[in-house]
Amino acid sequence: MFAKMHHVCLSILVLACLLPVALSTGSSVEWCYHLPSCNDTTWPVIATRFCNGSRQSPINLKSSLKSMTSSQQKFTFTGFNDKAGISKIKNTGKSVKVEFKAGKLKVSGGGLSTAYNSLQFHLHWGNSSSPGSEHTVDGKRYPMELHIVNAKSIYNGNLAKILQDSEGLAVLGFFIEVDSGTTDQPASWRTLTYHLASITEKDQSADITGISMNDLISGVDTSSYHRYLGSLTTPNCNEAVVWTVFKNPIKVSKNLIDLFSTTVRVGNRSSPLMTNVYRSVQPLNGR
Ligand SMILES: *[C@@H]1O[C@H](CO)[C@@H](O)[C@H](O)[C@H]1NC(C)=O
Ligand SMILES: *[C@@H]1O[C@H](CO)[C@@H](O)[C@H](O)[C@H]1NC(C)=O
Ligand SMILES: *[C@@H]1O[C@H](CO)[C@@H](O)[C@H](O)[C@H]1NC(C)=O
Ligand SMILES: *[C@@H]1O[C@H](CO)[C@@H](O)[C@H](O)[C@H]1NC(C)=O
Ligand SMILES: [Zn+2]
């Protein structure tokens, strides 16, 4: 499966492959979240390059941290209102990934040095009784975290160049918090999670229509965020990411949040449910 992903990534589909499954730059590593033989404590051993690096992600975010600034510089989100920008939802076996139509969504501003093309978003979660965001804030873990993955536009999708640049990828992290007292809210998340039943097994995908990226992050104040330099949070953990983690969470009803940990599986229909799909927080090492 990893050999196959790698092959696909060398093809013209390189952009769609980026994360979280397949940013393999030569070696293919069998990694997982749910087995002691391949969970995140083993990644520095099974993917020494780069999971054992010194600027790894995620981290515990604190406003007091040295290089962490909460900037007021506004982002420009292009195409985020386009209901035709989102194309597909897929079970990758490690996460649920939503692909954007090529070239439709872009991100600039927000203190980023240049423009980035948005490729996909995916999610991290826990289980119905335990939260599963990747970043924590002063030790608090949120129920879920959404990552919009963006690649520096000047590289035109050249994966090698993207990964050699310490800011080749800009990932936008959104926390997801329980919207207490509601069910099935907001409507955009009802639409998104409706599709989970069609992608219960690994490699299944479904078309999505009628929702925009802005619908999914609606209500979030994007002018306030944490910024730091880090890595991919899945092997090979390349240190090529400028992180933005918004302080204000997306609010989603508990029943919809729970659909992730109770619907999709890591493999076929007899495999375990996909739960606790997040990496532990990493050392700051002076950041
Ligand atoms: C991950 O695996 C290690 C052994 O490699 C084990 O000690 C640890 O409990 C596991 N963690 C989880 C969350 O399963
Ligand atoms: C990771 O790096 C540390 C020092 O940077 C080293 O002591 C350790 O052996 C490395 N672990 C692996 C698995 O390479
Ligand atoms: C949820 O995950 C936590 C953390 O790994 C674990 O301790 C707990 O048993 C799990 N709960 C359920 C209901 O699976
Ligand atoms: C599911 O996958 C497992 C492990 O790959 C395999 O042994 C089993 O036969 C599969 N079951 C079905 C119903 O396809
Ligand atoms: Zn992620």
SSE diagram, text form:
Layout: H1 2-10, H2 43-46, H3 48-51, E1 60-61, E2 75-78, E3 86-91, E4 96-100, E5 106-109, E6 116-125, E7 136-137, E8 140-141, E9 144-152, H4 159-164, E10 169-178, H5 187-194, E11 205-207, H6 213-216, E12 225-230, E13 241-246, E14 250-252, H7 254-263
Parallel strand pairs: 1-7, 10-13, 10-14
Antiparallel strand pairs: 2-5, 3-4, 3-11, 4-6, 5-6, 6-9, 7-8, 9-10, 12-13
Describe this structure in words.
By secondary structure, the chain is α+β, with helices and mostly antiparallel strands. The protein has one domain: Roll (Carbonic Anhydrase II). It is 16% helix and 25% strand. It has helices at 2-10, 43-46, 48-51, 159-164, 187-194, 213-216, 254-263; strands at residues 60-61, 75-78, 86-91, 96-100, 106-109, 116-125, 136-137, 140-141, 144-152, 169-178, 205-207, 225-230, 241-246, 250-252. Strands 2, 3, 4, 5, 6, 9, 10, 11, 12, 13 and 14 form an eleven-stranded mixed beta sheet that branches. It has a three-stranded mixed beta sheet with strand order 1-7-8, with no helix packed on it. The longest helix has 10 residues, at 254-263. One 2-acetamido-2-deoxy-beta-D-glucopyranose binds at residues 44-45, 48, 52.
